[in-house]
Amino acid sequence: MIECIFCKILNKEIQSEIVYEDELVCAFKDINPTAPVHILVVPKPHIENLNAVQQQHKELIGHVFVVAKELAKKFGIDEKGYRIVVNCGADGGQTIDHLHFHLLGGRKFSWPAG
Ligand code: 5GP
Ligand code: ZN
To answer: Rounded to the nearest whole angstrom, what is the distance from the C-alpha of residue 51 to the centroid of ligand 1?
Structure first.
């Protein structure tokens, strides 16, 4: 946990551009954005990925989506649309082992994802 980059960002040991924070989540700009708006919404507890989510996290995960849609509005992508992505594990493309939700917008995305 001490070596987790996102825990260090949450603890302000590593600088990031935080756009929202409350007692449950922190949201900051992705360091390597893949869209004009690319924000990571991160639950504060160190949960490794979606596989580690338990019943006790239901309120927390629901809160993530409420925060995400508020950020979509704040960053002006709510009406045109946006995408929320959770990568899980190696095949899912997860590179940071602390559960996070990518909020992506400001351009059109293709589907199915490649
Ligand atoms: P994943 O690939 O695990 O779904 O997403 C990890 C994301 O974290 C990537 O989009 C990557 O650009 C971002 N990221 C990695 N290290 C840092 C960092 O130190 N600061 C910020 N703001 N984003 C980071
Ligand atoms: Zn962590």
So the answer is: 19
* Alpha-carbon gap, residue 29 to 52, rounded angstroms: 24
Per-residue pLDDT band for 95 (boundaries 50, 70, 90) equals very high
Q: In what order do the strands lie in the sheet with 18-21?
A: 18-21, 25-29, 37-43, 101-105, 82-85
The number of angstroms, rounded, from the C-alpha of 48 to the middle of its chain's C-alpha atoms is 13
- Closest approach atom of ligand 1 to CA 95: 3
User: pTM for this structure?
Assistant: 0.97
CA distance 62 to 23: 14
